[in-house]
Amino acid sequence: MEVRKNGRPKHRTLTGKQLAEVIELFKQTDTVELKVTVRDSDRYSAVRALEMDVLEAEIRQVVFFDTPDLKLNRAGIIVRARRILKDGDTIIKLRPIVPAELPNNLRRSSSFNIEVDVMPGAFVCSGTLKGKTDNGEVNDVLKGERPIRKLFLRDQRALFRQHAPRGVDLDSLKPFGPINVAKLKFSPRELKKRSLTAELWFYPDGSRILELSTKCLADDAFQVLAETRSYLMNRGIDLNGGQQTKTRKALEYFSRLYARNPKAA
What we know:
This protein is an alpha+beta fold and about 260 residues long. It has a single domain (about 15-265), classed as Beta Barrel (Hypothetical Protein Pfu-838710-001), CATH 2.40.320.10. Helices cover about 30% and strands about 30% of the residues. The protein is built from eight helices and nine strands. It has helices at about 15-25, 45-50, 70-75, 105-110, 135-140, 155-165, 220-235, 245-260, and strands spanning about 30-40, 60-65, 75-85, 90-95, 110-120, 120-135, 175-185, 195-200, 210-215. A nine-stranded mixed beta barrel has the order 1-5-6-4-3-2-7-8-9, surrounded by five helices. Mean pLDDT is about 85; it is low at about 1-10.
């Protein structure tokens, strides 16, 4: 964290070059998600400062799929399934992407979404092809009683084949999970009907990540960013803490687990 001469922390912001890049991306994206992770030492104070009611949180389970040495992650592919209260869902995500380089049929698909994630001092553009699945089917995959490929729709499987490293197919992947997540959506009065989402991820080693986020259309992104940032700072939320993404932490944890104990796969 950089510190100004007056002793106050210097907030992480995008450089001029990054700002020019993100402005151009906003012209080609469907949605923008603003994210910030809260240090675990600040988690309890953040929950109180934002007046979050934990009794309203929804419990879900997340499972990623990759090779033990993270070949998909290195190739910019994320494969994920979730068990949610009613129905599960799946995604094949590509990141980073250049929207203009995507085929037209993919961009026109109602199941495909281009999104820019903006974090303190950083951003990334991704494309996500979504699908539905059954919670029981996800559970069957975790128990080894159902092939991984059957969780995903035909279009998702085709997208995977187009971008996966040679020799890697869906059924050759290992499950990275499940990871328990508590998700809470709430609407602070100060943000005029705009909602924030808090996700607390509980990793198998006992560590946690609390992420705060809000989504908006690209045309509203800069105003939403300014208002949300101001709100969080006024509530005492440190925007300069180390930013660690939920996905990367999960992948790195399970990769180390499989490296120590290949039979865990």
